[in-house]
Amino acid sequence: MNSMYFTEEHKAFRQSFRDFLQKEVVPNIDKWEKAGFIDKGIWTKFGEMGYFGLNYPEEFGGLNLDLFYTVIFLEELQKVNSGGFAAAMWAHTYLAMTHLEKEGCQKIKENYLAPSISGKKVGCLCISEPFGGSDVAGMRTTATKKGDTYILNGSKTFITNGVYSDYLVVAAKTNPELGNKGLSIFVVDRESAGLSATTLEKLGWKASDTAEIAFDNVIIPSENLLGEEGKGFPYIMQHFALERVVMAVNAHARAEYALDYAIQYMSERKSFGKTINQFQALRHKVADMASEIEMCKEFNYSIVYRLNKGQYVVKEATMAKLKATKIADEVIYQCLQLLGGYGYMEDYPMARLFRDSRLGPIGGGTSEILKEIISKIVIDKKEYKPVT
What is the chain's mean pLDDT, rounded? Predict the structure, then answer.
């Protein structure tokens, strides 16, 4: 590990978390991949070990650790070779829970954040819509104020943990006429009347439950509003920096895992009387891939360092997600090629890695959207500022 960012305590945590995953998760991955969902018991085990509370306040059961523990958490999750399992864990921890912690009142934190940290409740974040995708400001879901409640109507799609979660963090327009200035965020209980979820079949991320969710006159208590009414859009934009860093770290970690596997395979596979790691054409491919991964990793670590200092790194996080997911796709494509016919076989890990990696340039803002955001910052000199 890079000693510039990681201490001996970080190193010990990595080993203990790796051991935990090998014992509790890896033996079940194939079962969860086939079933399309994860046994609820693993959430409790993660909670008991403190893995959901790494960088959350001690007041609610967290450990209040620095973000490099989160980096280790993300990197090691990629090595179980299930993008779906990893996504279910980090979507709960760094998408849903982030809004609870940053915008939730004391009561919400006690009722939702604390049990999320302990693994007793699982959350999901509901932003994308069937007609909106990456266009957050164009969402159609509405939450109409009625007395001391809001009435929620609309739909969301591509929601990780959307079927089996216990609560949903939902973005909706409270004042549609105001555009993105009329957007608010709520926490909604799964058992709320009028809420339904439909499982979506995906190319990859098979272990995670992904849903399209419908809201038909769902009643939300006004106390379930997160933060201030009308501030939902800047809340979402502010937290996109963390989400993009998470996805960038995921990308460099899965690319590294794929390359390590390919190098091991090359050291064992023989052709024309020698192991294929002796062929210059293949060796130079590995050299290129290793260099690109290392550059991504160093850039990502530097952004995490700044984020940990409280800096607003929306530009750098957007760049990191754009480039790291692209490089991960390219690396895994080449690693599959290095395995030849075996790379195409389901018995080998590369086929699943190949499918799972493809979501990188799509989820959390497509690469096309990210390029436009970067263009606005670099060319138009647009400034994005935190709201809280």
Answer: 95
